[in-house]
Every structure is written in C-alpha cells, then in structure tokens.
Fold these 2 entries.
Entry 1:
Amino acid sequence: MADQDLTKGEQTRQTILDSAVSRFGMDGFRATSVADVARDAGVSGSAVYAYFPNKEALFFAALDQDAAKVIDLGISALITTAGRQQWREELMLTLVGSLQTHPLAQRVLSGLEPDVTARVLDIPALNELRKGLAGRLHRDQLDGTVRSDIDPVVMANGAVTIIMCLLVGVVQFGDAGVSLYGPDVLAVLDAALDTPD
C-alpha cells in the first residue's frame, strides 16, 4: 500500500514504526525509550501509546516489520528466479544481503537482544517464507526437477530452519562461513531434492 493510500492514523503509525526500527536497531531495546522513538517520529509520547500499549509491543511490531521486509525480498527472489539451483542461491544471497539495510533484524539475529531471541521463530513473515518455499518445491515437483516423494511443506519447514541458522551464523561470524559452508549446504539440499536418475 502506497503512503498516499494510508489514512492519517495509518501514516502516523507507520512513521512511529519506521522510527522504532531505526532506533531499536541502533541502540537496542533496553537503551531505547518510547520517548526516543516518539521524538524521532516527530510525535508526542502519548501518540505512540495510542498505537502500541507498551514498549515491548512497539519493539515486536518494529521487529516484525523489519524482518518482513527482509523476507519479502527473499520471497521475491524465490518466485522470480528460474532454475532450482539458481533460486536457492538467490534466496540465500538476497536474505544475507538485505540484512545490511535492516538494522533491527540484523541486531536480533546477532544475538544482541537475547531476551527476544525465541520470538524470532514466531515472526509472521516466516510463515510466508514457508508457504513460498512449499509452493516453489511443489511447482518444481510438477516440472520434474524435485523428487515427487517428498512433502513440500515438511521440506519448506526444514529449509526455513536451515536458512535461519545460516542467517544467524552469517550475522554473528561473517561472510566467511557462507563461502566455507555454503556449497556444502546446497549439496545437502541437492541430495534431498534431486530426482532419481
């Protein structure tokens, strides 16, 4: 939805969320106050509470938004990239690359917000990634490029788990892990998905 399609209240809420993503991404949950976010958004502190009942709800909404933007880019790569090998590589490269411009998602995956680490698994956009992966695997099954005897939903759930682990590893240990272990991960996925000769 374009900004001009939003009501004034929706625009205010979005401005608050954008400010929260930036501020929480830069300073973290503990060091950021609702007043900081309000000041950055150009609204009063009471305006923030009109949309979010407390600081924790604001933080989770900001995290969900930032993570959704990362995952949306990955889903786009998943849908638009052609061959099986290409979409898997493009998906990972897109997700890793997009973390550079999404500070809150990167901060949480870095382990700098240990109190909310478990919350990462409940990010709504991960369900969209699972659905996108399952759909892509099903299409590839119909094309004969993925084994027909696997359950696309189960494989998608497993793939999202692997993807999350890789993203945490990349953020915490750097790109060296991708170049070192990335080909092995793709080889394991190949073995699991390959159609029998």
Entry 2:
Amino acid sequence: MSTQILPDRHLPLDGTRNVRDVGGYPTLDGRRMRWRTLLRSDELARLPARTVDALVDLGLRQVIDLRWPEELEIAPNDFRRHPGVRYASIPLLADDPTPHAGLAGMYRHVLDARAAQLAAVVRALLAEGALPAVIGCAAGKDRTGVTIALLLDLCGVPRDVIVEDYALSAGYFASPVAHIEPDDWRHASLVVDSPPEFMDAALAHLDAVHGGARRLLRGQGLADAELDLLVARLTEPAVG
C-alpha cells in the first residue's frame, strides 16, 4: 500500500489568502498534474520578504499577473523586479464586464473576447525556464479561475475536478486571517462568490462555442506540438 505524503494544496503564506497548487489532479488519459509546477494566487503585493523567499524556495521561475494596469499601480507585484523570477503582465480584461454581464457572463466574455490574452499566457508558460509558475489576479478567483480552468481542460482534467478546484476560493476568504496586514483589503472575512455552477456553465460554453481549450488556443495560432509540449510539462504519469 502506498504511503506517499502529498504536498499541501493551499499555501497559507503571509500576505496572501488564496495561493494554491493545482498539482495532483487526475487527467482523463491516466496522468496527473505535476505538483509545485503551476500555482494560482491572489495578488502578490506587499509581501513580507519571507513569503517571497518561500515561493522562490519552491522553485518559482515565473509570475503571470492578470490584473489591470491600474491595479498594478496601486498594488505593484512584488516579483516585478525580482532578479531570479520572470514577471509577465498580461491584463486578462480591458475593463470589468461584471456589472452588466454578471459573474457567469464575465467568464464567458473572457473566453469569447480575450482568447488572445489566454494564448499569451500559454506562450509565457512555454518559454524556456518558465516553470514553475504562478498565475494570479486580485482575489485569485475570477480571472485566475477562468485561466486555470482553461489550462486544466487543455491537460485533460475532468470537468467536475476543474469545477471543484474553482469553488475552493470562497472558503479561503470566509474567515479573517492574522497573516495579512490590517489595512489590506483581504484582511477581514469576505464574501467571495465562487459558485460551482458558474464554472460548470463556463466550461459548457467553452465546449459548445469554442470546441474546448485546445481548439480555442489553436485559433490563436498555437500549434498542436506546442500545446502537447505544455501538457507534457504540466503533467506526469500517475503514481498508483
């Protein structure tokens, strides 16, 4: 019987609330997502040095920031000038469509109107020495959630697992935490919606309108060989 001890999925790092590893998730072809290779996060701003060091010690090579330029001015990413970590700013949205489209509509909007930005994320991950990487936004839930869902879908992670991963975010904002400064907007308990049905609907839309993650990304000029290479880097044979 295997006694393998798996890494923690949630990393409760000082100055953050929603840093998570998507490692360990199974794929439909019998593989699994590699641990400590692809992380998702809330904003990495005003971090204590020990948190920056902890992420670097995990092997972090790249930070992909999906926030708007205005957010970057207010809360600059602490890795934007780090000597050993590549930093990529890829604003996933030109503006916030949530007020008129609703949260579920915003997810569909990302897939419909921001495929070029999603492809830019994939190209950043394909760069030499780009992994391990962390992808994040403000709360690490919506923009990050759609992007991570697309990558998990590309890797063949079952839809119910993708939905469950997305839904985890709400729990990490439900209670106040002591390891965030009191003047940070994430310090107190927050009602952060991550209803499973919203991501389930987004994935159904991805299939019905775009033919799945691979076809959407191929439509942005990415070749099957490139997508296969990324899948190979993000997954590994499952251990029984």
